[in-house]
Give the backbone structure.
Amino acid sequence: MTVNPSALNTYLKKFTKLRQGVTKYGKAPHKPVLLLAFIELFEKGELTENRVLISPELVALFKESFALLVRTAHKSDFFLPFYHLSGEGFWTVQTKLGSPLQVYIGNFSKLNEVVAFGCFSEELYTLLLHTETRNILKTALLDRYFPDTKTDFLNTKQGGYIQNLKSFLLNESPAGYTLAVNETDEEEQFIRGGLFKKLVPQVYNNTCSISGMRLVSNHGFSMIDACHIVPFSLSKDDKINNGLALCPNLHRAFDRGLISVDEKLQALVSDKIAEDLTNSYALQHFKGKRVSLPFGAKHYPSAENLAWHREHVFKG
């Protein structure tokens, strides 16, 4: 691919003249922060097609960059720039129905419910694919919008937000680090939920802790789910020890109280179900089977949470 110099000049002008909402704290910094998060995805090799999904990794990159660059009291709302950037002429947001977005998005939940992905103009996408032109655009954003914080940003930007959050969820908080968990921040909950779904199967080696099933495709797809022991809606707990790795059928059975785990970490099966015991997939075959545990006691399922499940969910 060849880069058109005039296209670079065009987007340098666009990037340095973004329309920013005026608030009591000054001009909103959200659009340039989001563009920097996009650029980081390209740098990491995570954007290989012109199709940007709303992923936990992207939201985390945005929030981390926002915290490092912004010194005003603006709130790091991701949904605002993802939606409003479409007014700049180089960004289009597609709905899950396949049509361009034409409705107002007022919060993150609505954005995640309606939007499938965003995409760049083809000219801009080509510029962002090239390291040299991508760096020129990145430098222009930092110089224009964040001259006072750009040096610290470049020196400290090491994926700290998502790494610290992983450590928190894995009960591995590093010394001297304290993560302030905001249980009402839906964007943070989205990031934590996405990490929970990835980390629980990982610590169980992508293996169902009850059936022993393990299936990973060449594309990295796993058939193992991350199952909350105490539902997140009640506990707001996405730490790994509130999780079990289960295959989809056992995940559903656990959520519905058809199976549970006793004090000795053996599988319990409800007596209130009727099933064909000649079928090799019958739940009764797992009764009394010891649950496989992840590596590291700090990742073991919480005894307190398992007791809650037996008392409040299991239909013994």
